[in-house]
Here is the input.
Amino acid sequence: LSCFGATSTVKLIKSLEQAINTPLFQPLDKAVFEGLLIKHDEKYSFVHDHVQSAAYNLMKPEERCLYHFQYGLALCSGSMFSQDDDAIFTAVGQINRGGPSAVSNPAQGATIANLNLLAGKRAVGMSD
Here is the structure.
């Protein structure tokens, strides 16, 4: 959750959970029980920015890059990706936070460039 900032929607978490085939709600609900997160109105939020920062900094910088990159790619494969502008922006933002070092081959780089182009076109379309 810390890779996505201070707050994440249940919709986003559900999409990521399906895409990476890893249970996410059980540990999040445990963190709610322990007082680290708040669940309110279909969102999970850290109780304080410092808690989010501490959770994020538990990962090594190179791990953070890989998680951002993997989560972004995983979200791109979800069914809501093509229809939901927020999902596109979130997925591409995560990929970009992974940085160029996370790209494993030229074909993957081309795919990421196309995803950024799609996000850019959607952003321009929203501003009209």
Summary: The first strand starts at residue 7 and ends at 9.
